[in-house]
TrEMBL record:
Keyword Secreted: no
InterPro entries, per database record: GH, Glyco_hydro_25, Glyco_hydro_fam25_subgr
Organism: Streptomyces lycii
PROSITE patterns assigned: GLYCOSYL_HYDROL_F25_2
Keyword terms: Glycosidase, Hydrolase
Keyword presence, tRNA processing: no
Protein name from the UniProt record: Muramidase
Pfam families referenced in this protein's UniProt entry, alphabetically: Glyco_hydro_25 (PF01183)
Amino acid sequence: MSVKGVDVSSWQPEDYRTEGMDFAFIKITEGTSYINPKWVAQRATARDAGLVTGFYHFVRSGSMSAQADYFLGEINLAAGDMLVLDWEDPDVSNADKDSWLRYTQGKAPGHKVLLYCNRDYWLNRDTTSFAGDGLWIANHNNDPGNPGIQAEWKFHQYTTSPIDTNVGRFDDRAALRSWAGG
């Protein structure tokens, strides 16, 4: 794996470090009432650096279609933008997770729709193994590219220090951009 990236939310600055990075995932929404106030500037930081961009929604219990519409309503999608469901809330079921992913795939054709979850959720909570177009797995083991699961994955978040850092299963940025549709 030779692609490296970061993921940012309102906890990180608008002008985070991009040197040596190939991609960035940016939190936009949570539930149906929260919007990251920094996301537009964070997107500009990524795009100005030529990074492949992805955006994520932190899912809460409730209507999955309403949350997906809320998320998608904030984005002016560009070719190659990836869309991610951040599944960390224990009140969100497998059926809900799958519903959001499928609904979003239908609403944003031509964009990769992925699932983000931690290793424990994937191994002990997930029962369907459905991750949309790809799995982004979090296992903060400081061992990039070895998330400790057997399932095929696309991205591995391996540390939170000094910022959430990830690797992708792509030969280079061009391969990632091609896969993402950009």
